[in-house]
Amino acid sequence: MGKKTGDIRRAENLVQKKERQTKKAKRPACCGSCEYNQPNFKYRTCLFVRCPMDKTRRTLRDKPLRKDKFSA
Helix, strand, or coil here: 58? Predict the structure, then answer.
């Protein structure tokens, strides 16, 4: 019974590792190639508050843009 559970755990770990690799492959290398990138927003760089591709990435700018295209 010990060998079977070890084999099952090993197979589960391989599947989880493969899932993590595919998630990393889907993630854009930088926000410039992302479809949600909004370079014209004054206070944010993304359409969303949290980046949908990488939950740890910040979308708020450190310094707001001096002038955005939406204000007159």
Answer: coil
**Domain extent listing, the chain:** 2-29
Q: Which residues pair with 60 in a beta bridge?
A: 44
State the number of CA atoms in the 13 A half-sphere of 61 facing the CB.
16
Contact 6, 32 (CB under 8 A): no
Tokens of 55: 């939950």
pTM of the entire predicted model:
0.48
Its sign, for the CA torsion 57, 51, 55, 66, is positive
If one counts every other C-beta atom within 10 angstroms of the C-beta of residue 1, the result is: 5
**Mean pLDDT per 10-residue section of the chain, whose length is 72 residues:** 75 82 60 82 86 81 81 63
